[in-house]
Amino acid sequence: MEKQILGLHHITAIAADAQKNYDFYTKVLGLRMVKKTVNFDDPGTYHFYYGNEHGTPGTILTFFPWKNIGQGKSGTGMATEIAYAVPSGSLDAWKERFSRHNVAFSETAPRFGETGLSFTDPDGLQLQLVIPAAEDARIPWETAEVKADMATKGFHSTTLSLKQIDATAKVLTDIFGYRLQSQEGNRYRFVTDAVANAGTIDLLELPDGAPGKQAAGTNHHVAFRVANNADQMEYREKVLAGGLQITPQIDRDYFYSLYFREPGGVLFEIATDNPGFTVDEPLDQLGTNLKLPKQYEQYRAAIERELPVIK
Q1: Whole-structure pTM value
Q2: Any idea what the Cα angle at residue 37 is, between residues 33 and 38, rounded to 5°?
Q3: What pairs with residue 187 in β-bridges?
Q4: Which of 14, 230, 233, 295 sits in a 20 to 30 Å window from 67, CA-based?
Q5: Mean pLDDT across the chain, nearest whole number?
């Protein structure tokens, strides 16, 4: 049976202030801190993972909070919007919640027959809550203030802004197995039938669009999901056969990764489901303690002194 890309695995973005980032995503948006670790290439910087109870692929938004990094700018060659699926009828409750917490939001025009609410995080990262056309059956993570009748269920989609979409679309269809579902103006919706959720990618064609500047409030990379290492290696061969360069497999402790730059400029990752986030913490303690990659454990005391304390 042919291997399939199983939709989105995670999306990684950049923030400027670790505490503000933690407060917004766990307290305002109501996500679970699934893992608190550090950037593999810069252990003096946190790497936060937010998601549902188990950190299920397709729910995971991660951040590198680099202090004093400066403000980024969304533009072509990057993912410019991240959309979460929410329950039907919940948008009014979110508007009230956003108003109470001074979160900038705006009504959005119906897109492909679905209703959404756009908002930004403290760094200006562009996000959206969407009521999907088909009910999303995933079990959300609940908090004292964000109950299941409004809680996010995981990713609905992400939007890639591109000067031209053809080459990127070819990666999605010919390598990843997505298909073009619909078009509205300069927005093209691609979906995979391999999964019920987190399987939508929108390509927004902006021939005159300015290139984005990657810093706080912008996306870093988009990770696609495969079931295991064997599937991942098959996709590595497909990417190479498509004429693109791709890294060797990299161990990220909670999944294994391959990276390549798609022709439109967006950094893509192919990440495995295995071994998952409970490899070094029990489920009920996920995100509680600072977990370090094994190569940095000997430097724990110095790293903990450098990282800001998160309350």
Answers
A1: 0.97
A2: 135
A3: 184, 204
A4: 295
A5: 97
